[in-house]
Design goal:
Length: 338
């Protein structure tokens, strides 16, 4: 039994335990009294830029809502926050909604937050990399499983017809260590998120040689999900939240300087040069920042194929069960988004 298999099994067991134990001029929406959208994010991450923009640019207030944001400290942790009624909205990896539902909780995805499995391959200047097949025989520096910096190259290598266990060596490292591993020669490649991709190009003399997520295509990498009960008992709160996210996504695509401004506020320890270097990657051919919050079936299928392929899902639950686009569709129509 390989170490990676044991890691996957332990990860899924832990997810099951937590769910089972807890069982611009935007139109204003009127509420009888102001409600607060209580939001639990996995960790503070650049991928969640639509959420931070909605908060920083007053989009929740435009909807008659207050907002409260807390970082849960891990990809699975927003689920217990919802189930214990300490949060209304979970912002994290979409697969967490499936695992929680498979354990008996009824979760539903209401808004797309990141539209690409945004993992980038970095290497020393002059390195040739044409696709996942070029990982063969090489050492790849990643974060520890179940980080997508590990699972996404694993999946891409498998899709390329290689054996991801035998044909590639993974150097699983703590946060912040992958870039140094490439710089000092311990690894041939690093697979990273932003801001690390731009830290690599601006501070480690490395190059982004491939965008794994762009090659995989549009995917609902990160989403907002809620309990099905919330959509039934407080639809105005859910609609106001989706409107705020839609307005933020529209503004980000209309004025990319907003991205820089909000990122600088939310990540004050990140060098502004890093944020500026990252900006084009958030608005590329397959944009990380969605154009609207609707979750398409294609985006869902891409994400599910990825997660199922690396063993992080407890069940394969259908799109029709797990996605409620009614709120996102109203928001998209209201703000004239395509």
């Amino acid at each position: 039994m390989t170490q990676s298999y044991m890691d996957r099994r332990s990860f899924l067991y832990a997810l099951g335990g937590s769910a089972g134990a807890l069982g611009l001029g935007m139109p204003r929406r009127a509420f009888a009294q102001q409600q607060t959208a209580r939001i639990s994010e996995a960790i503070h991450l650049g991928l969640y830029m639509p959420l931070y923009t909605a908060i920083n640019k007053g989009f929740f207030e435009e909807q008659g809502l207050g907002s409260s944001l807390k970082s849960a400290g891990g990809i699975a942790q927003p689920v217990p926050a919802l189930l214990s009624d300490s949060a209304d909205f979970a912002v994290t990896g979409t697969g967490m909604s499936i695992n929680a539902t498979a354990e008996g909780a009824q979760m539903v995805n209401i808004a797309k937050i990141a539209g690409q499995i945004s993992v980038f391959v970095l290497a020393k200047p002059g390195t040739t990399f044409n696709g996942p097949e070029d990982f063969e025989g090489k050492t790849v520096a990643t974060l520890k499983y179940p980080s997508n910096t590990y699972t996404t190259p694993y999946y891409a290598i498998k899709q390329a017809g290689l054996d991801p266990e035998a044909d590639v060596n993974y150097l699983q490292l703590p946060f912040g260590a992958q870039l140094q591993a490439v710089a000092d020669g311990r690894a041939d490649f690093a697979t990273v998120f932003e801001w690390d991709a731009s830290i690599g190009t601006t501070q480690f003399d490395l190059e982004v040689v491939y965008a794994l997520g762009e090659a995989l295509g549009p995917a609902v990498f990160s989403s907002t999900f809620v309990t099905k009960t919330l959509t039934e008992e407080n639809p105005d709160l859910v609609q106001g939240y989706c409107n705020a996210i839609a307005g933020a996504e529209k503004l980000l695509h209309e004025d990319e300087q907003v991205f820089v401004d909000v990122a600088t506020t939310e990540f004050p320890t990140v060098d502004p040069a890093v944020i500026e270097a990252a900006r084009p990657r958030f608005f590329g051919k397959v944009p990380i920042v969605p154009r609207n919050p609707i979750i398409s079936e294609q985006e869902w299928d891409t994400l599910i194929a990825h997660e199922d392929g690396v063993g992080t899902l407890r069940a394969d639950l259908p799109y029709e069960q797990m996605v409620d686009n009614s709120f996102a569709e109203k928001a998209t129509e209201e703000f004239g988004l395509s």
